[in-house]
User: Fold these one by one.
Assistant:
Number 1:
Amino acid sequence: MHIVFAFLAGLLMSVGIAVSKMIDPAKVLAFLDVTGNWDPSLALVMASALAVYSTGFWLIRHKPAPIMAEKFHLPVVSKPDKPLLIGATIFGLGWGLAGYCPGPAISALSAGSIGTLGFVVAMVAGWYLARKWPLPR
């Protein structure tokens, strides 16, 4: 049953990403181009996501465990550390150069673009390398 709910949550996220056009690199790059032809519409998508997440987090804050798992898996590091800062920098550079971040890139695979496929292959290789050689904290 867990896998069904995980699939449905992923499907809902994918539909939201597609409807908001976050799978279109040109739209994302227009959002990031604050000095040129700026398109602020993705800020509304991000604000909506933050509102949904914050509400959910507020609702579960006093629960002993989630419905579909034995315990919550919350972050344990409370301050930015070296791996977080390096990862955030790489994420930002990749997003700014390619117009994709991981979720939208995976959703955009359905369009069949070779560029998207190349991005996802590079992303998976990066995940593999990061697990193989983790940065010291």
Note: The chain has one domain: 2-132.
Number 2:
Amino acid sequence: MTVEPFGARLRRAMDTRGPLCVGIDPHAALLTAWGLGDDVAGLERFSRTVVEALADRVAVLKPQSAFFERFGSRGVAVLERAVADARAAGALVLMDAKRGDIGSTMAAYAAAYLDPASPLFSDAVTVSPYLGYGSLAPAVEAARAHGTGLFALALTSNPEGAEVQRATGADGTTVAATVLAHLKAENAGERPMGSFGAVVGATLGRSVAGAGIDLDTGGPLLAPGIGAQGATPADLPEVFGAAVRNVLPSVSREVLRHGPDTAALRRSAERFAEEVRAVVVP
């Protein structure tokens, strides 16, 4: 049985539901703001509300694994349910786990998130290439086998990232540019969009264009930083240039702060999706 690649499924979801990814980030302050306890019961109520409000209308939901893991096995059980329910309602699920390792350990991470037999099976997962891009090979192989995807950290919005990502090799090429070049090679020939994406902060402004970095990898570009971190949808064309068509902006707090009101969560997500669509769709 041939599995449709993640890139094709994501392109369709972005075109029909709007180019937006909403994070599921149940950190303690947000649980409190929702009137929930900072415990497993609050975690479950929060996650269920977000999934019920948004999974049938946004392109991608992105649970942040750490906020579930902090509650141990019971928190992971809540995450498993959230992933399954979100996918059943039609959303693509991007697991924000930022895993990175070598050999059999990387293969185990890939099996945890990208194998349909896993209770945490997701449509894609974030990965870290900073043990060398080649260390991601088991995840790349798993993604190709199962029709899933990867988003590799490339140019993140946190200021500390620059000391690694903007570092240059002997040929003058930055580490970030090398990662992006590898992703472009993975996506070669894939239509309408490749399955191997990059994480590029929407807050980086002209610094990306000024560095001469090619963001047109043929795959999706996950763009955190919209909303609470200061970037707006109107900033996207300046940051991403010709690659803006493949940008998937990620919003968390600016949508989630409207909960637990389901209607308010939906209105906020729909507003962001329309604002993004207005600047990225030709």
Note: The chain has one domain: 6-276.
